[in-house]
Amino acid sequence: MLIDINLLPKKEKKNFSVAIILSLLSVLFIIGTSLTFYYGFVLKSQAQQLSLKNQQVTESLRQEQEQVEMAQSTNSVVELKKAVEWAQSYPIKSVPVLQHLTSLLPERGFIQQYSYSEDGKVLLTVQFDTSREAAYFLKWLNDSKWIAEANILSLNLGSNNETNTEQTEVPQTEYVPRYIGSFDITLEREKVKELINMEKTEQGGDS
Q1: Cα–Cα dist 159/127, whole Å
Q2: Which CATH architecture has domain 94-206?
Q3: I need a surface site. Which of 10, 113, 126, 181 has the fewest CB within 10 A?
Q4: What is the pTM of this model?
Q5: Which CA distances in Å does 58 have to 19, 44, 55, 71, 113?
Q6: Residue 187 has what DSSP assignment?
Q7: Which residues lie across from 110 on neighbouring strands?
Q8: How confident is the chain (207 residues) per 10-residue block, as mean pLDDT?
Q9: Is 147 exposed, middle or buried (0-12, 13-18, 19+ CB in 10 A)?
Q10: What distance in Å separates the CA atoms of residue 110 and residue 62, rounded to the nearest whole number?
Q11: Strand order in the sheet with 179-187
Q12: Residues in CB range of 198: below 8 A, 6 or more apart
């Protein structure tokens, strides 16, 4: 009877399951790493796009804001221009003007006719004792801050029916002729309004 005796060490069977698991883990790690880098790249690209869009929106809002401010500025200029035009066209009250013109008359000067238009034109007919008084009155008109320009249109001797009541009581032998002067006056509109307002303010403060 033969007996087979093998004195060589017995070879162990390779454990392929461990190798397979390690290989699978390696593949999964590689895939996971790749996906992580991929999604990181995608998220970075999206962030850049969002940043670019944000810059575009911000620039668009800035331009719209500038347009709104320009429109508001234009509207303000238009409103201011309208206010200035209104102030320039606003009529001056005639009573203060008449009072000022009366204050410039010589002692025996009398206003016979007074015509005032809203554009600042005044036509005045005044009675004087002498022609020199008419010349002085014209000078005082042109020296006044209220008046831009004053001209004398005519200066004539008045007839008997143009004299005042005091004169008609004087005997004919003592009759002194009176001079009738016509004046064309242009008011300094803005200055007149300013002076009238100053007078109102002063009167208000005194009261």
Answers
A1: 11
A2: 2-Layer Sandwich (3.30)
A3: 10
A4: 0.49
A5: 57, 21, 5, 20, 71
A6: E
A7: 127
A8: 59 66 84 84 84 83 82 71 56 81 92 87 94 95 93 85 44 68 92 78 60
A9: buried
A10: 69
A11: 110-116, 121-128, 179-187, 147-157
A12: none
Give dist(CA 112, CA 127) in Å, integer.
7
- Residue of 49, 8, 183 whose CA lies nearest to 111: 183
Half-sphere exposure of 124 (CA within 13 A, CB side): 30
Tokens of 135: 């010349």
Q: Does residue 120 come out as left (phi exceeding 0), alpha (psi in the -120 to 50 range) or beta? A: left
Amino acid at position 142, single letter: N
Which of 130, 97, 128 has its CA nearest to residue 114? Answer: 97
